[in-house]
Design brief:
One of its GO terms (molecular function) is flavin adenine dinucleotide binding. It is an enzyme of class 1 (oxidoreductase). Its cofactor is FAD. InterPro entries: FAD/NAD-bd_sf (IPR036188), GMC_OxRdtase (IPR012132), GMC_OxRdtase_N (IPR000172), GMC_OxRtase_C (IPR007867). The chain is α/β, with parallel strands linked by helices and 550 residues long. It has 2 domains: 301 residues, FAD/NAD(P)-binding domain, CATH 3.50.50.60; 195 residues, Cholesterol Oxidase, domain 2, CATH 3.30.410.40. 30% of the residues lie in helices and 19% in strands. The chain has 15 helices and 23 strands. The strands form 6 sheets. Strands 5, 6, 15, 16, 17, 18, 21 and 22 form an 8-stranded mixed β-sheet that branches. Strands 1, 2, 9, 10, 11, 12 and 23 form a 7-stranded mixed β-sheet that branches. A two-stranded antiparallel sheet has the order 3-4. α8 links the parallel β13 and β14. It is globular, with a radius of gyration of 23 Å.
Protein backbone atom coordinates (compact mmCIF):
# COMPACT_ATOMS: atom_id res chain seq x y z
CA UNK A 1 0.00 0.00 0.00
CA UNK A 2 1.30 3.44 -0.90
CA UNK A 3 1.34 5.43 2.33
CA UNK A 4 1.59 9.16 2.89
CA UNK A 5 4.59 8.81 5.17
CA UNK A 6 7.37 6.26 5.09
CA UNK A 7 10.49 5.88 7.17
CA UNK A 8 13.83 7.33 6.15
CA UNK A 9 14.72 9.00 2.87
CA UNK A 10 14.35 6.14 0.45
CA UNK A 11 13.67 7.45 -3.08
CA UNK A 12 9.97 7.30 -3.86
CA UNK A 13 8.15 7.73 -7.16
CA UNK A 14 11.36 8.75 -8.92
CA UNK A 15 12.46 11.35 -6.36
CA UNK A 16 16.21 11.80 -6.03
CA UNK A 17 18.19 10.65 -3.01
CA UNK A 18 19.03 13.08 -0.22
CA UNK A 19 22.58 13.54 -1.47
CA UNK A 20 21.37 14.79 -4.84
CA UNK A 21 18.45 16.97 -3.70
CA UNK A 22 18.46 20.72 -3.81
CA UNK A 23 19.10 21.87 -0.29
CA UNK A 24 17.99 24.88 1.78
CA UNK A 25 18.76 25.88 5.32
CA UNK A 26 15.12 26.70 6.02
CA UNK A 27 11.94 25.63 4.27
CA UNK A 28 8.85 27.66 5.19
CA UNK A 29 5.57 25.85 4.48
CA UNK A 30 2.84 28.41 3.85
CA UNK A 31 3.19 32.00 2.62
CA UNK A 32 0.40 33.49 4.70
CA UNK A 33 0.32 36.13 7.41
CA UNK A 34 3.10 34.53 9.45
CA UNK A 35 5.01 32.70 6.73
CA UNK A 36 5.83 35.83 4.74
CA UNK A 37 7.25 37.43 7.88
CA UNK A 38 9.39 34.41 8.76
CA UNK A 39 10.77 33.94 5.24
CA UNK A 40 11.51 37.62 4.68
CA UNK A 41 13.29 38.12 7.99
CA UNK A 42 15.40 34.97 7.67
CA UNK A 43 16.46 35.99 4.15
CA UNK A 44 17.20 39.65 4.93
CA UNK A 45 18.77 39.26 8.37
CA UNK A 46 21.02 36.29 7.63
CA UNK A 47 22.77 34.60 4.73
CA UNK A 48 20.70 31.43 5.18
CA UNK A 49 19.23 29.81 2.08
CA UNK A 50 15.46 30.08 2.42
CA UNK A 51 12.68 28.42 0.43
CA UNK A 52 9.06 29.52 0.85
CA UNK A 53 6.38 27.14 -0.43
CA UNK A 54 2.88 28.53 -1.01
CA UNK A 55 -0.05 26.62 -2.52
CA UNK A 56 -1.62 29.76 -4.05
CA UNK A 57 -0.59 32.59 -6.37
CA UNK A 58 1.53 35.68 -6.07
CA UNK A 59 -0.52 38.71 -5.18
CA UNK A 60 0.11 40.32 -8.56
CA UNK A 61 -1.88 37.55 -10.22
CA UNK A 62 -4.93 38.57 -8.19
CA UNK A 63 -4.56 42.36 -7.90
CA UNK A 64 -7.59 42.70 -5.64
CA UNK A 65 -5.40 41.30 -2.84
CA UNK A 66 -3.14 44.36 -3.09
CA UNK A 67 -5.71 47.16 -2.75
CA UNK A 68 -7.82 48.32 0.18
CA UNK A 69 -11.12 48.00 -1.68
CA UNK A 70 -10.24 44.66 -3.21
CA UNK A 71 -11.19 42.54 -0.21
CA UNK A 72 -14.80 42.24 -1.32
CA UNK A 73 -13.75 40.95 -4.75
CA UNK A 74 -11.24 38.61 -3.14
CA UNK A 75 -14.03 37.17 -1.01
CA UNK A 76 -15.73 35.73 -4.11
CA UNK A 77 -12.55 34.65 -5.92
CA UNK A 78 -11.96 30.94 -5.29
CA UNK A 79 -8.32 31.31 -6.32
CA UNK A 80 -7.65 33.36 -3.19
CA UNK A 81 -10.54 32.31 -0.92
CA UNK A 82 -10.06 28.59 -0.39
CA UNK A 83 -13.52 27.00 0.01
CA UNK A 84 -13.70 24.76 3.07
CA UNK A 85 -16.64 23.41 5.06
CA UNK A 86 -17.22 22.07 8.53
CA UNK A 87 -18.62 18.71 9.43
CA UNK A 88 -22.36 18.97 10.29
CA UNK A 89 -22.80 21.06 13.44
CA UNK A 90 -25.38 19.52 15.80
CA UNK A 91 -25.93 22.78 17.72
CA UNK A 92 -26.45 24.76 14.50
CA UNK A 93 -29.31 22.81 12.91
CA UNK A 94 -26.84 20.15 11.76
CA UNK A 95 -25.54 22.46 9.03
CA UNK A 96 -22.21 22.09 7.28
CA UNK A 97 -20.86 25.62 7.39
CA UNK A 98 -18.49 27.60 5.18
CA UNK A 99 -15.07 28.15 6.81
CA UNK A 100 -12.90 29.29 3.90
CA UNK A 101 -9.39 30.67 4.31
CA UNK A 102 -6.93 32.73 2.31
CA UNK A 103 -4.74 31.12 -0.32
CA UNK A 104 -1.85 32.93 -1.99
CA UNK A 105 1.04 35.03 -0.72
CA UNK A 106 -0.24 36.96 2.26
CA UNK A 107 -2.81 34.25 3.03
CA UNK A 108 -5.95 35.33 4.83
CA UNK A 109 -4.17 38.62 5.56
CA UNK A 110 -4.39 39.40 1.83
CA UNK A 111 -8.18 39.07 1.68
CA UNK A 112 -9.51 40.04 5.12
CA UNK A 113 -10.94 43.37 6.34
CA UNK A 114 -7.43 44.55 7.31
CA UNK A 115 -8.07 44.63 11.07
CA UNK A 116 -4.80 44.95 12.96
CA UNK A 117 -5.12 44.53 16.73
CA UNK A 118 -2.59 43.25 19.23
CA UNK A 119 -5.38 41.78 21.38
CA UNK A 120 -5.28 42.20 25.18
CA UNK A 121 -3.03 41.61 28.17
CA UNK A 122 -5.48 39.06 29.54
CA UNK A 123 -5.47 37.09 26.28
CA UNK A 124 -1.75 36.41 26.59
CA UNK A 125 -2.09 35.77 30.33
CA UNK A 126 -4.49 32.96 29.33
CA UNK A 127 -1.62 31.21 27.58
CA UNK A 128 0.28 30.79 30.88
CA UNK A 129 3.61 30.99 29.07
CA UNK A 130 6.18 33.35 30.65
CA UNK A 131 7.91 34.27 27.40
CA UNK A 132 4.57 35.01 25.69
CA UNK A 133 3.12 37.49 28.17
CA UNK A 134 2.19 40.97 26.96
CA UNK A 135 5.25 42.56 28.54
CA UNK A 136 7.52 40.08 26.75
CA UNK A 137 5.86 40.76 23.38
CA UNK A 138 5.71 44.55 23.23
CA UNK A 139 9.11 45.02 21.56
CA UNK A 140 8.26 42.40 18.93
CA UNK A 141 4.93 44.09 18.24
CA UNK A 142 6.74 47.41 17.86
CA UNK A 143 9.21 45.88 15.41
CA UNK A 144 6.36 44.35 13.42
CA UNK A 145 4.46 47.64 13.31
CA UNK A 146 7.48 49.65 12.14
CA UNK A 147 7.35 47.60 8.94
CA UNK A 148 3.60 47.08 8.67
CA UNK A 149 2.69 50.74 9.38
CA UNK A 150 -1.00 50.30 10.38
CA UNK A 151 -3.44 53.25 10.41
CA UNK A 152 -6.91 54.13 11.63
CA UNK A 153 -9.57 55.47 9.28
CA UNK A 154 -11.09 58.89 9.63
CA UNK A 155 -14.35 59.31 11.56
CA UNK A 156 -17.65 59.74 9.72
CA UNK A 157 -21.04 60.92 10.93
CA UNK A 158 -22.24 57.32 11.10
CA UNK A 159 -19.26 56.01 13.04
CA UNK A 160 -19.47 58.90 15.48
CA UNK A 161 -23.16 58.14 16.07
CA UNK A 162 -22.25 54.48 16.70
CA UNK A 163 -19.62 55.42 19.29
CA UNK A 164 -22.01 57.79 21.05
CA UNK A 165 -24.66 55.07 21.18
CA UNK A 166 -22.18 52.55 22.58
CA UNK A 167 -21.13 55.00 25.29
CA UNK A 168 -24.80 55.50 26.20
CA UNK A 169 -25.11 51.71 26.54
CA UNK A 170 -22.15 51.39 28.89
CA UNK A 171 -19.05 51.18 26.69
CA UNK A 172 -16.05 53.47 27.10
CA UNK A 173 -14.72 55.24 24.02
CA UNK A 174 -11.24 53.83 23.33
CA UNK A 175 -8.45 56.16 22.33
CA UNK A 176 -6.20 53.25 21.33
CA UNK A 177 -7.37 49.65 20.92
CA UNK A 178 -3.75 48.47 20.91
CA UNK A 179 -2.84 49.44 24.47
CA UNK A 180 -3.67 46.00 25.86
CA UNK A 181 -6.90 46.98 27.66
CA UNK A 182 -10.05 45.88 25.83
CA UNK A 183 -12.40 45.83 28.81
CA UNK A 184 -15.71 47.45 27.85
CA UNK A 185 -14.33 49.67 25.09
CA UNK A 186 -15.30 50.60 21.54
CA UNK A 187 -13.29 52.68 19.11
CA UNK A 188 -11.53 52.97 15.77
CA UNK A 189 -9.51 49.87 15.01
CA UNK A 190 -6.03 49.89 13.54
CA UNK A 191 -5.94 48.59 9.96
CA UNK A 192 -2.98 47.47 7.87
CA UNK A 193 -3.21 49.79 4.89
CA UNK A 194 -1.37 52.78 3.48
CA UNK A 195 -3.27 55.03 1.11
CA UNK A 196 -4.98 52.71 -1.38
CA UNK A 197 -2.53 49.86 -0.74
CA UNK A 198 -3.25 46.88 1.48
CA UNK A 199 -0.25 46.25 3.73
CA UNK A 200 -0.43 42.47 4.07
CA UNK A 201 2.65 40.63 5.31
CA UNK A 202 3.35 39.85 1.65
CA UNK A 203 3.43 43.52 0.68
CA UNK A 204 5.14 44.80 3.82
CA UNK A 205 7.71 42.06 4.40
CA UNK A 206 8.14 39.67 1.49
CA UNK A 207 7.87 41.89 -1.59
CA UNK A 208 10.97 43.95 -0.68
CA UNK A 209 12.98 40.75 -0.20
CA UNK A 210 12.03 38.95 -3.42
CA UNK A 211 15.21 39.88 -5.29
CA UNK A 212 17.53 38.49 -2.64
CA UNK A 213 19.67 35.60 -4.01
CA UNK A 214 19.24 33.54 -0.82
CA UNK A 215 15.43 33.53 -1.04
CA UNK A 216 13.37 31.31 -3.33
CA UNK A 217 9.57 31.50 -3.44
CA UNK A 218 7.64 28.71 -5.14
CA UNK A 219 3.94 29.43 -5.60
CA UNK A 220 1.24 26.90 -6.57
CA UNK A 221 3.34 24.42 -4.62
CA UNK A 222 1.26 21.77 -2.87
CA UNK A 223 3.19 20.31 0.06
CA UNK A 224 2.54 16.59 0.45
CA UNK A 225 4.60 15.67 3.48
CA UNK A 226 7.56 16.52 5.67
CA UNK A 227 10.09 13.68 5.53
CA UNK A 228 11.10 12.52 9.00
CA UNK A 229 14.34 10.53 8.82
CA UNK A 230 15.33 7.50 10.87
CA UNK A 231 16.82 9.74 13.57
CA UNK A 232 13.55 11.61 14.03
CA UNK A 233 14.58 14.78 12.19
CA UNK A 234 12.67 16.78 9.57
CA UNK A 235 15.14 16.30 6.74
CA UNK A 236 13.22 17.05 3.57
CA UNK A 237 9.95 18.39 2.16
CA UNK A 238 8.03 16.76 -0.67
CA UNK A 239 5.72 18.90 -2.78
CA UNK A 240 4.28 19.15 -6.25
CA UNK A 241 4.00 22.02 -8.73
CA UNK A 242 1.71 21.53 -11.71
CA UNK A 243 1.69 17.80 -11.12
CA UNK A 244 5.50 17.58 -11.05
CA UNK A 245 6.77 15.93 -7.86
CA UNK A 246 9.73 17.58 -6.16
CA UNK A 247 11.71 17.13 -2.98
CA UNK A 248 14.15 19.45 -1.25
CA UNK A 249 16.55 18.71 1.59
CA UNK A 250 16.50 20.82 4.75
CA UNK A 251 19.77 21.72 6.44
CA UNK A 252 18.41 23.43 9.55
CA UNK A 253 14.65 23.58 10.03
CA UNK A 254 11.21 23.29 8.50
CA UNK A 255 8.83 25.99 9.72
CA UNK A 256 5.13 25.24 9.38
CA UNK A 257 3.05 28.37 8.66
CA UNK A 258 0.05 26.83 6.90
CA UNK A 259 -2.58 27.78 9.50
CA UNK A 260 -4.68 26.03 12.11
CA UNK A 261 -6.29 23.67 9.58
CA UNK A 262 -3.56 22.88 7.07
CA UNK A 263 -0.61 22.73 9.47
CA UNK A 264 -2.00 19.82 11.56
CA UNK A 265 -3.24 18.11 8.40
CA UNK A 266 0.21 18.23 6.77
CA UNK A 267 1.92 17.03 9.93
CA UNK A 268 -0.48 14.10 10.14
CA UNK A 269 0.23 13.24 6.51
CA UNK A 270 3.89 13.22 7.54
CA UNK A 271 3.29 10.65 10.28
CA UNK A 272 3.04 13.03 13.25
CA UNK A 273 -0.21 12.97 15.21
CA UNK A 274 -2.71 10.66 16.88
CA UNK A 275 -1.41 7.19 16.09
CA UNK A 276 -4.77 5.43 15.72
CA UNK A 277 -6.04 8.08 13.32
CA UNK A 278 -2.90 7.89 11.16
CA UNK A 279 -3.03 4.11 10.99
CA UNK A 280 -6.67 4.23 9.85
CA UNK A 281 -5.43 6.09 6.77
CA UNK A 282 -2.48 3.78 6.16
CA UNK A 283 0.09 6.31 7.37
CA UNK A 284 3.19 5.13 9.20
CA UNK A 285 3.39 6.71 12.64
CA UNK A 286 6.68 8.57 12.93
CA UNK A 287 5.75 10.27 16.22
CA UNK A 288 2.58 9.68 18.23
CA UNK A 289 1.23 13.11 19.22
CA UNK A 290 -2.38 12.76 20.45
CA UNK A 291 -2.88 16.51 20.97
CA UNK A 292 -2.30 17.46 17.33
CA UNK A 293 -5.57 18.51 15.71
CA UNK A 294 -7.35 18.86 19.06
CA UNK A 295 -8.25 22.16 20.78
CA UNK A 296 -9.62 23.77 17.58
CA UNK A 297 -11.18 27.17 18.32
CA UNK A 298 -13.05 29.76 16.28
CA UNK A 299 -15.11 32.90 16.89
CA UNK A 300 -18.72 32.29 15.76
CA UNK A 301 -20.81 35.39 15.14
CA UNK A 302 -24.31 36.55 14.28
CA UNK A 303 -25.35 39.78 12.56
CA UNK A 304 -28.23 42.09 13.44
CA UNK A 305 -29.31 44.36 10.57
CA UNK A 306 -30.85 47.82 10.76
CA UNK A 307 -32.12 50.44 8.35
CA UNK A 308 -31.33 54.08 8.94
CA UNK A 309 -33.04 57.17 7.65
CA UNK A 310 -30.12 58.27 5.47
CA UNK A 311 -27.18 56.79 3.64
CA UNK A 312 -24.40 55.30 5.74
CA UNK A 313 -21.29 57.37 5.04
CA UNK A 314 -18.71 54.70 6.02
CA UNK A 315 -17.09 52.34 3.51
CA UNK A 316 -15.39 49.92 5.92
CA UNK A 317 -16.22 48.12 9.17
CA UNK A 318 -13.79 50.33 11.09
CA UNK A 319 -15.20 50.20 14.62
CA UNK A 320 -14.42 47.38 17.05
CA UNK A 321 -15.89 46.97 20.53
CA UNK A 322 -15.36 44.53 23.40
CA UNK A 323 -17.45 43.84 26.49
CA UNK A 324 -18.19 41.26 29.18
CA UNK A 325 -21.73 40.19 28.27
CA UNK A 326 -21.93 37.14 30.53
CA UNK A 327 -21.15 38.17 34.12
CA UNK A 328 -21.54 34.54 35.27
CA UNK A 329 -18.59 33.33 33.18
CA UNK A 330 -15.44 32.19 34.98
CA UNK A 331 -13.16 34.21 32.70
CA UNK A 332 -10.56 36.46 34.28
CA UNK A 333 -11.97 39.56 35.99
CA UNK A 334 -12.52 42.43 33.55
CA UNK A 335 -11.88 40.18 30.55
CA UNK A 336 -14.26 40.76 27.61
CA UNK A 337 -16.09 37.76 26.19
CA UNK A 338 -17.78 39.32 23.15
CA UNK A 339 -16.83 41.63 20.29
CA UNK A 340 -18.98 44.14 18.39
CA UNK A 341 -18.43 45.38 14.84
CA UNK A 342 -20.53 47.99 13.04
CA UNK A 343 -20.86 46.87 9.43
CA UNK A 344 -21.87 49.29 6.62
CA UNK A 345 -23.83 47.02 4.27
CA UNK A 346 -22.77 49.00 1.20
CA UNK A 347 -19.16 47.95 1.86
CA UNK A 348 -19.57 44.29 0.85
CA UNK A 349 -23.12 42.95 1.32
CA UNK A 350 -23.42 42.01 -2.35
CA UNK A 351 -20.19 40.01 -2.28
CA UNK A 352 -21.01 38.42 1.07
CA UNK A 353 -24.29 37.11 -0.34
CA UNK A 354 -22.57 35.92 -3.51
CA UNK A 355 -20.19 33.87 -1.39
CA UNK A 356 -22.57 32.59 1.29
CA UNK A 357 -25.85 32.02 -0.58
CA UNK A 358 -24.66 28.97 -2.58
CA UNK A 359 -23.76 27.35 0.75
CA UNK A 360 -27.21 28.08 2.12
CA UNK A 361 -29.40 27.09 -0.84
CA UNK A 362 -27.45 24.24 -2.46
CA UNK A 363 -27.02 20.81 -0.82
CA UNK A 364 -23.41 19.85 0.06
CA UNK A 365 -23.07 17.55 -2.93
CA UNK A 366 -23.87 20.37 -5.36
CA UNK A 367 -22.55 23.62 -3.88
CA UNK A 368 -19.01 23.15 -5.20
CA UNK A 369 -20.15 22.50 -8.77
CA UNK A 370 -19.00 25.69 -10.49
CA UNK A 371 -22.02 26.13 -12.85
CA UNK A 372 -24.54 25.83 -10.01
CA UNK A 373 -22.65 28.02 -7.55
CA UNK A 374 -22.00 30.59 -10.27
CA UNK A 375 -25.67 30.55 -11.21
CA UNK A 376 -26.61 31.51 -7.66
CA UNK A 377 -23.94 34.21 -7.64
CA UNK A 378 -25.18 35.59 -10.95
CA UNK A 379 -28.68 35.79 -9.49
CA UNK A 380 -27.40 37.81 -6.54
CA UNK A 381 -25.44 40.11 -8.83
CA UNK A 382 -28.52 40.66 -11.00
CA UNK A 383 -30.68 41.47 -7.97
CA UNK A 384 -28.20 44.10 -6.81
CA UNK A 385 -28.57 45.98 -10.09
CA UNK A 386 -31.95 47.10 -8.85
CA UNK A 387 -31.88 50.83 -8.03
CA UNK A 388 -34.48 50.25 -5.33
CA UNK A 389 -32.34 47.60 -3.64
CA UNK A 390 -29.28 49.82 -3.93
CA UNK A 391 -31.13 52.61 -2.12
CA UNK A 392 -32.08 50.20 0.67
CA UNK A 393 -28.54 48.85 0.99
CA UNK A 394 -27.10 52.38 1.14
CA UNK A 395 -29.06 52.94 4.37
CA UNK A 396 -28.50 49.45 5.77
CA UNK A 397 -26.00 48.61 8.50
CA UNK A 398 -25.30 45.66 10.70
CA UNK A 399 -24.07 45.13 14.21
CA UNK A 400 -22.06 41.93 14.23
CA UNK A 401 -21.82 40.17 17.59
CA UNK A 402 -18.83 37.84 17.94
CA UNK A 403 -18.18 35.25 20.63
CA UNK A 404 -14.65 36.26 21.56
CA UNK A 405 -13.72 33.69 24.22
CA UNK A 406 -15.43 30.41 23.26
CA UNK A 407 -15.38 27.52 25.70
CA UNK A 408 -16.15 24.97 22.96
CA UNK A 409 -13.25 22.99 21.55
CA UNK A 410 -13.33 21.20 18.21
CA UNK A 411 -10.98 19.13 16.07
CA UNK A 412 -9.20 18.96 12.73
CA UNK A 413 -8.80 15.41 11.45
CA UNK A 414 -7.62 13.77 8.26
CA UNK A 415 -10.19 13.24 5.55
CA UNK A 416 -7.89 10.89 3.64
CA UNK A 417 -4.23 9.92 3.13
CA UNK A 418 -3.45 12.48 0.41
CA UNK A 419 -2.80 16.22 0.46
CA UNK A 420 -5.74 16.66 -1.93
CA UNK A 421 -8.17 15.16 0.61
CA UNK A 422 -9.89 17.98 2.54
CA UNK A 423 -9.45 17.92 6.28
CA UNK A 424 -12.44 17.16 8.49
CA UNK A 425 -13.05 20.46 10.29
CA UNK A 426 -15.26 20.35 13.35
CA UNK A 427 -15.35 23.61 15.34
CA UNK A 428 -18.00 22.07 17.65
CA UNK A 429 -19.88 25.36 17.83
CA UNK A 430 -21.88 25.72 21.08
CA UNK A 431 -20.92 22.25 22.29
CA UNK A 432 -20.27 24.06 25.55
CA UNK A 433 -23.69 25.55 26.41
CA UNK A 434 -22.09 28.62 27.99
CA UNK A 435 -21.11 29.81 24.50
CA UNK A 436 -24.74 30.03 23.38
CA UNK A 437 -25.69 31.85 26.60
CA UNK A 438 -22.88 34.36 26.14
CA UNK A 439 -23.66 35.06 22.49
CA UNK A 440 -27.36 35.60 23.28
CA UNK A 441 -26.38 38.06 26.03
CA UNK A 442 -24.13 39.74 23.47
CA UNK A 443 -27.11 40.15 21.12
CA UNK A 444 -29.07 41.72 23.98
CA UNK A 445 -26.21 44.15 24.64
CA UNK A 446 -26.00 45.00 20.94
CA UNK A 447 -29.70 45.83 21.00
CA UNK A 448 -29.13 48.19 23.92
CA UNK A 449 -26.53 49.97 21.80
CA UNK A 450 -28.76 50.26 18.73
CA UNK A 451 -31.62 51.38 20.96
CA UNK A 452 -29.60 54.26 22.42
CA UNK A 453 -30.58 57.82 21.50
CA UNK A 454 -27.66 58.49 19.15
CA UNK A 455 -28.64 55.65 16.82
CA UNK A 456 -32.36 56.23 17.21
CA UNK A 457 -31.65 59.71 15.87
CA UNK A 458 -29.73 58.19 12.95
CA UNK A 459 -32.39 55.56 12.37
CA UNK A 460 -32.33 52.03 13.79
CA UNK A 461 -35.24 50.02 12.45
CA UNK A 462 -34.35 46.41 13.17
CA UNK A 463 -34.85 44.25 10.09
CA UNK A 464 -33.11 41.09 11.29
CA UNK A 465 -33.86 39.17 13.43
CA UNK A 466 -36.73 41.61 13.96
CA UNK A 467 -38.29 43.02 17.09
CA UNK A 468 -40.49 39.94 17.49
CA UNK A 469 -37.46 37.92 18.64
CA UNK A 470 -37.45 39.03 22.28
CA UNK A 471 -37.35 35.96 24.49
CA UNK A 472 -34.20 34.07 25.36
CA UNK A 473 -35.57 30.98 23.62
CA UNK A 474 -36.24 32.86 20.39
CA UNK A 475 -32.80 34.48 20.47
CA UNK A 476 -31.18 31.10 21.03
CA UNK A 477 -33.00 29.85 17.93
CA UNK A 478 -31.84 32.91 15.99
CA UNK A 479 -28.22 32.30 17.00
CA UNK A 480 -28.31 28.58 16.18
CA UNK A 481 -29.85 29.25 12.76
CA UNK A 482 -27.63 32.17 11.75
CA UNK A 483 -24.24 31.73 13.40
CA UNK A 484 -21.27 31.74 11.05
CA UNK A 485 -17.51 31.77 11.27
CA UNK A 486 -15.40 34.89 11.78
CA UNK A 487 -12.49 33.00 10.13
CA UNK A 488 -10.39 33.09 13.32
CA UNK A 489 -9.07 29.51 13.49
CA UNK A 490 -6.60 28.63 16.24
CA UNK A 491 -5.31 26.10 18.72
CA UNK A 492 -4.72 22.82 16.86
CA UNK A 493 -0.99 22.55 17.73
CA UNK A 494 -1.10 24.23 21.12
CA UNK A 495 2.01 25.66 22.74
CA UNK A 496 2.34 24.62 26.38
CA UNK A 497 5.09 24.33 28.95
CA UNK A 498 4.20 20.70 29.73
CA UNK A 499 4.57 17.66 27.52
CA UNK A 500 0.87 17.98 26.66
CA UNK A 501 1.78 20.77 24.26
CA UNK A 502 2.46 20.01 20.61
CA UNK A 503 5.13 22.73 20.65
CA UNK A 504 7.23 24.27 23.40
CA UNK A 505 7.65 27.98 24.13
CA UNK A 506 10.25 28.22 21.36
CA UNK A 507 7.71 26.83 18.87
CA UNK A 508 9.63 23.56 18.44
CA UNK A 509 7.54 20.47 17.74
CA UNK A 510 8.05 18.01 20.58
CA UNK A 511 9.46 14.67 19.55
CA UNK A 512 10.82 15.82 16.16
CA UNK A 513 14.08 17.65 15.52
CA UNK A 514 14.34 20.52 13.05
CA UNK A 515 10.61 21.30 12.96
CA UNK A 516 8.74 24.35 14.27
CA UNK A 517 5.26 25.76 13.93
CA UNK A 518 4.72 29.51 13.59
CA UNK A 519 1.04 30.24 12.98
CA UNK A 520 -2.26 30.50 14.85
CA UNK A 521 -2.36 26.75 15.47
CA UNK A 522 0.10 27.23 18.37
CA UNK A 523 -2.27 29.53 20.31
CA UNK A 524 -3.41 27.58 23.39
CA UNK A 525 -6.41 29.89 23.84
CA UNK A 526 -7.83 32.04 21.06
CA UNK A 527 -7.48 35.80 21.71
CA UNK A 528 -10.68 37.83 21.95
CA UNK A 529 -9.95 39.96 18.86
CA UNK A 530 -9.01 39.36 15.21
CA UNK A 531 -6.05 37.03 14.76
CA UNK A 532 -4.08 38.63 11.92
CA UNK A 533 -1.96 40.81 14.21
CA UNK A 534 -1.17 38.02 16.70
CA UNK A 535 -0.45 35.63 13.79
CA UNK A 536 2.09 38.02 12.30
CA UNK A 537 3.55 38.48 15.77
CA UNK A 538 4.09 34.71 16.04
CA UNK A 539 5.92 34.80 12.72
CA UNK A 540 8.02 37.72 13.92
CA UNK A 541 8.91 35.95 17.17
CA UNK A 542 9.71 32.74 15.26
CA UNK A 543 12.21 34.64 13.15
CA UNK A 544 13.80 36.05 16.32
CA UNK A 545 14.13 32.53 17.73
CA UNK A 546 15.56 31.09 14.52
CA UNK A 547 18.01 33.94 14.03
CA UNK A 548 19.08 33.61 17.65
CA UNK A 549 19.60 29.88 17.28
CA UNK A 550 21.79 30.43 14.24
Amino acid sequence: MHTAASGGLTPRDGLTTIARMRSYDYVIVGGGSSGCVVAARLATESDARVLLLECGDRGEQNPETLTVDGYKQAFINDRVMWPKYTTPQPQCMNKSMFVGSGRGLGGSGAINAMVYLRSSVSDFDDWQLPSWRWSALESAYEGLERVLDPHRRDPTEFTQACIEAAVEAGFTRATDLNNGDLDGVLGYEWMNYRGEQRRSSYVAFLQPALDRPNLQVHTNAVVERIVIDSEGRASAVEYSVGGSRQCVAVGKEVVMCAGAVETPKLLMLSGIGPGAQLRRHGIDVRFHQPALGENFQDHPNVALFYRGRRDVDAKYPQLYGFHRANSASDLRPNQPDTCYVFYPARSSLREMMMRMLPTLVLPPALRERPPLAQGVRNGVSLAFRSKRLQRVVAQLYGMIVILGKPKSRGTVKLGGPRASDPALIDPAYFSDPEDLTTLVKGVELARRVTGAQALRDWGATELFPGRWARSTKLLEGFVRANAMTTYHFAGTAAMRTSDRGVVDERLRVRGVEGLRIADASVMPVVPVSALNGPSMLIGYRAADLLLGDG
